[in-house]
Design brief:
This protein is an alpha/beta fold and 289 residues long. The protein is built from 11 helices and 8 strands. It has helices at 9-30, 46-58, 63-72, 83-87, 89-103, 136-156, 168-178, 192-200, 219-228, 258-269, 273-288, and strands spanning 3-7, 35-38, 73-77, 114-123, 160-165, 183-186, 204-207, 234-236. An 8-stranded parallel β-sheet has the order 1-2-3-4-5-6-7-8. Helix 1 (9-30) packs across helix 2, helix 1 (9-30) crosses helix 3 and helix 10 (258-269) crosses helix 11 (273-288). It is globular and about 55 Å long. The two termini are 17 Å apart.
């Protein structure tokens, strides 16, 4: 049973329409998806995202598929560090906390299904010191926004889905300052030494379609990294609709394509797809309760 710990269902429903979203959920149910997490990026997007998933599930005609698809879905809620969100971080995190409380309430469309805070973190690719609107104050605010969400997760006893791009040292520094080591580094894009630093602190590492199109010259390092990560700290994701794996690179990604990443990573690690599925499923249960 495949698990996908990171996709953006609302983006997919906007591309394919609600009926297309319903067909996607039905296919996930048909494939026996064990765990699928719809990821948040805005302070106020959790409840609308739940509504979208609910509307699509209601369009699944087969009751058995509707139940199995609905049973695997979990949600995260977090604030991606764009300049606007950084500037409005205090009110944004307050709104985020309120959305999580409503999303996990007994009266929610999916009570108790908010399983993580995130995605949140640091992005020094887009928020680089050379960007027009990224002065020192904004970069400091980016770190503060990340720290505020780590503290929120600590308060709620939830794991964190961390976005970290070109920002290893700062990401590790904020985490160390907060002292909250519970979560996953999403779409891991660093090397073995950086992996060791996160693993030593207790973090999980998630890999997706990008590993299938690593440059040929860099593939030996990627393979060493994939073999190095312990089975009990490994997660797989699609980041759909982004980062479709080979041979679908450049197309709209969906959670159904997670199979290709499992096959690639299992081959690199020298294990069966079934064994990798079992390990990742167990990790999902452990980290996301």
């Amino acid at each position: 049973m495949y698990s996908d710990t990171h996709f953006h269902f609302q983006h997919l429903a906007r591309r394919f329409g609600l009926q297309g979203g319903a067909e996607l959920l039905a296919a996930m149910g048909r494939n026996g998806t064990a765990f699928g997490m719809d990821i948040g990026t805005r302070s106020g997007d959790l409840l609308p995202r739940m509504e979208t998933v609910h509307e699509c599930l209601c369009l699944v005609d087969d009751a058995g598929l509707r139940r199995s698809a609905g049973a695997c879905i979990r949600f995260s809620a977090g604030i991606w560090p764009d300049p606007g969100a950084i500037r409005e971080r205090v009110s944004g995190v307050a709104e985020l906390a309120g959305q999580i409380a409503c999303g996990n309430a007994d009266t929610s469309l999916f009570p108790g299904r908010v399983a993580a805070v995130g995605e949140c973190g640091l992005d020094h690719h887009w928020n680089s010191s050379g960007a027009a609107d990224c002065g020192a104050a904004l970069l400091s605010g980016e770190r503060e926004l990340f720290a505020m969400q780590l503290e929120l997760a600590r308060r709620l006893s939830l794991p964190v889905v961390v976005h970290s791009r070109d920002a290893f040292a700062d990401t590790l520094g904020v985490i160390a300052d907060c002292g909250y080591d519970c979560g996953v580094i999403h779409c891991f894009s660093y090397g073995l030494d950086e992996a060791r630093a996160f693993l030593d602190r207790g973090w999980y590492l998630a890999f997706g379609g990008a590993v299938t199109y690593t440059k040929k010259s860099c593939m030996p390092d990627m393979e060493r990294l994939l073999r190095y990560v312990p089975a009990d700290r490994l997660l797989l994701e699609t980041d759909a609709p982004y980062l479709a794996p080979v041979p679908l690179r450049g197309t709209v990604n969906t959670p159904l394509n997670i199979r290709l990443s499992y096959e690639f990573i299992a081959s690199v690690r020298g294990e069966s797809v079934e064994a990798l599925c079992a390990a990742v499923d167990k990790n999902c249960c452990t980290l996301f309760s």
